[in-house]
Amino acid sequence: MKNRFPIKAILVATTALTATPCAFADEADDDIEDIVVTAGRRSQPISQVAKSIAVLDADDLQARQYSYVVDALQSLPGVATNQNGSFGGLATTSIRGAGTDQTVVLIDGVQVNDPSSVGGAFDFSNLDAQGIDRIEVLRGPQAVLYGSDAMGGVINIITKKGGEGFGGTVFAEYGAFDSLHTGGNIFGGSDKLGFNLTASFKDTDGISAADEADGNTETDGYKNLSLRGKLHGKLSDAVGFEITSTYSDSENEYDGFSWDGLGFSLGDSDDNSTTEEFSIAGRGFFDFFDGRLSNTLSIEYSSIERANYDGDTFSYGAEGDRFNLDYLAVAELAEGWTLTAGAQHEEVQAKSVDPRKVSTDSLFGILSFSGIEGLVLSGGIRLDDHETFGSTTNGELNASYIVSPIGTRLTAAWSEGFKASTIFQQTFACCGFEANPDIQPERAEAWEIGIQQPLMDGRLNVSFLYYEQDTDDLIDFSFTNGYDNIARARSKGVEIGFDAALTDTLSLNANYTYTDARDVLADIRLARRPKNKVYASLTWQATDKLNTNLMLLHNGNELDSSGVILEGWTRVDLRASYELNETFELYGRIDNLFDENYQQVLGYGTPGISTYAGVRVRF
């Protein structure tokens, strides 16, 4: 790998071995299926959350053997993913038809969106799934708690924390394309201190990024090293602290575009890139009045550095960072009444574009009521003062009611979102036009209604949700005006969920998403948003030691950004694991079981049938 800054990797390891995350922050981990933290920035039972949220926990990630987070996100309703080939190719997400740069991505609460990219989107290609405790995805605009960029929603990746005693796991797997994936974690501590350190490494020859079906034969390799450190502590029953850090260093070979006399075409080349990503956060937790007032003070920092090469010749680089000071208070005002309020100061810098930093100061609050059995109401507002475009205000209203004794749950929500223009968009000048520093923020307004129904004594749960979202002042590019607010979008859709315990050993999890996302002015479909998506996972606990999982993902046809319609595709994956004893576990998987030939992005290939096998050791 060309760029090496080991000091950051050492800092991550030091974080886990000499610092600590607070026990207060995730007290509800004992019942992780029923507790979420992203919806209200505090631990809440899912029954008290009216927002649309999906959760994947550590058991899901391990049973389905996801190598990278982008693979896991494909399984969730309302989420569409695209990747330029595989193994390190640019990987992005779209939630409910929103743009790929309209989602806030957090790792342990630290925003990691790329400030140096054109739109500020996050590239998921290097985000390893090892060491992750759970993934929570909020769908719909979430400006009140998460500010700019959260027009589509929020993806929060929460890493594992330490526990009492000492232990860990190590794993190694090998498979298709001469791929090696190895790593592990160690954890330990007491009720006062705890730590967790995770490391993973992947090295693969890969496939041709440009589709082999188009005559491309040169394989494009990929390497990635990821480290995560976390430590938590309690100084007293009322005071605690947390330090968490992540580091990723990767090298990716890819295929570029060349001029063939008629136009640009994608094909084999010597292009390659390196990416280094880093984040760190320190938090203090202070409880007063017997826990009725909880306070969190946070200092957060994230950075990214990218470099592209044509062979050994440097061709392009980008560097950006984000600094955030955050105060959050959760107060129990009276029986059933809770106020969540806070203040933030954020500074964003795209060093490779502009030396200046752009700051935003924010105040926000949400008042919640749960004093009537089965009823949850909340409303909130946020004021953001952006250094460039000034002040903006956004709000949200949420309601949920459980009808006893049949258990029917009704939900309704209304919310607003906004996205400030990036430093790149504010400063880019070319082709006879000047930079436009006065671009106004993109704005979204959405509403949704839903129903959830448990049946058969809770062995079957079905859900249905309908939403609509309008987005105005979309930032677009033209060769006459450069970047400006010249577009509008509208999306509406349906999300249907189905969870069933078919027998004591057989369970089915499935969802269907319909998304109609359109450019209002041009009256055409938005690119890379499939109208139809189906996911299903059938899990069979064949014996006490043998677990199997069969997954199906159908992605309907979609419009590529080139204007070409890409055909829909269906992929089936098979997983199995066998516990030899409490220490050793064998596992294996077959990706793309029926060797489906498909493209997620025009011209870029995807792997055919691929087999992997590994061993996991617990100690």
What ranges have pLDDT less than 50 throughout 5 or more consecutive residues? 17-33
> Total number of helical segments?
5
* Biggest pleated-sheet summary: 22 strands, antiparallel, barrel
Overall structural domain count: 1
CATH level 3 topology:
Maltoporin, Chain A
Number of strands: 36
Tell me the name of the CATH class.
Mainly Beta
Q: What is the straight-line distance between the termini?
A: 32 Å
CATH H-level superfamily title: TonB-dependent receptor, beta-barrel domain
Overall geometry comes to globular
Helical fraction equals under 10%
User: Strand-residue fraction?
Assistant: over 45%
* Cα gyration radius (Å): 24 Å
Instruction: Please identify the oligomeric state.
Output: single chain
CATH architecture: Beta Barrel
Looking at this protein, list some descriptive labels:
about 625 residues; mainly beta; Maltoporin, Chain A; 5-stranded mixed β-sheet; 36 strands; about 5% helix; about 55% strand
Detailed description of the structure:
There is one protein chain. Strand 20 and strand 21 form a beta hairpin. It contains five helices and 36 strands. It is mainly beta. The chain has one domain: TonB-dependent receptor, beta-barrel domain (Maltoporin, Chain A, Beta Barrel), CATH 2.40.170. Residues 17-33 have low confidence and may be disordered.
